[in-house]
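Work Package 3 (structural annotation) set out to generate three-dimensional models for the target panel prioritized at the project kickoff. During this period the team completed the workflow that converts sequence records into discrete structure tokens, so that structures can be stored uniformly alongside our sequence database. As a representative example, we reproduce one entry of 196 residues exactly as it appears in the project archive.
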Amino acid sequence: MISSILLAAGMSTRMGEPKALLDWGGEPLIRYQIRQLQEAGVDEVVVVLGYRADEIHRKLHGMTYRSVLNPVYQLGRAGSLRAGAKAVSREATAVVLLNVDQPRPADLIRTVIEAHTTAASATRPECGDRHGHPVVLAGRLRGELLEATEDNQGLRGVLAAHLKDIVNVPSDERCLLDLNTPDEYEAAVAALAGDA
């Protein structure tokens, strides 16, 4: 079973509005991302909400997903990782980790999932010398996600403990896209329109 954790609890301070609700190809970004994860072959999508959770939840009407609330979302991403890890199925052999502000099409997600083997602790795309997202983590590392804190660097700390068992999959610049500011969002939308 392949599970996924979609992190969407942050306050989007630099963006000035919830990133989960940004328009992405005619729908809220979070709806797009849930669909792409499912089309890529994920069996379970766990969405971690926090800031303006009710407003975001209302935009997901009719979708198949499970949501969990991170009540301490103001304290950083590690709390959301813990909340998501607690909610994913214990049967999951792999967990796809993605932030809602990193739009990823199904084909990119599927490529990383298909490259993941039982021997790998994690699999991630890379473009040039930069590592991107999503990260596929072995289900056996769920316990380590449950121990993630800001002090031990959250996901980065988990990956650092397993560097020799990480598979890097050649990818393109799409694996590096991150929407943190209005300028980054506008540039990404312009590029998306150019691809249509």
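The chain is about 35% helix and 20% strand.
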